[in-house]
Amino acid sequence: MEHKIGPRKRIGLVAHDNKKPDLVEWSRFNRRLLADHDLVATGTTGTLLEDELGVGILKLQSGPLGGDQQLGALIAEGEIDFLVFFWDPLEPQPHDPDVRALLRLAVVWNIPVACNRASADFMISSPLMTSDYERQMPDYGSYIDRYSAGD
Description:
Blueprint: E1 2-5, E2 10-15, H1 20-29, H2 31-35, E3 38-41, H3 43-53, E4 58-59, H4 67-76, E5 82-86, H5 96-108, E6 113-114, H6 117-124, E7 133-136, H7 141-148
Parallel strand pairs: 2-3, 2-5, 3-4, 5-6
Antiparallel strand pairs: 1-7
Helix pairs in contact: 1-3, 4-5
């Protein structure tokens, strides 16, 4: 199954506290490219980016207060096309299960994920960011059938 994504993408933006300056700097550098897309971010990150970029951003809750889960729900509903998540691999997070769940959902629904500046640079500069794209959607029908039979 395919899901057509137009040239205007819906980009999820998240950063752990120690990585927020990196995401702000990356976003400032890519301001023109980001302005052509719809941006969604967890609370504090969204506020920082909105102030820096001067563009509207749909702000969810702060990550530890449910923002990661809100973003995951948007992914599961097909509302996010690309995730930029600058996570901190060296600092334990109190909401680590939510972080893992968000990354897992991105993989489950075949969403491109950039976890650092290098991967974000490669992805945002791809010609696919400004053109139509047919994202392959996994078919979970047999999985759903298998587990709903036990209900």
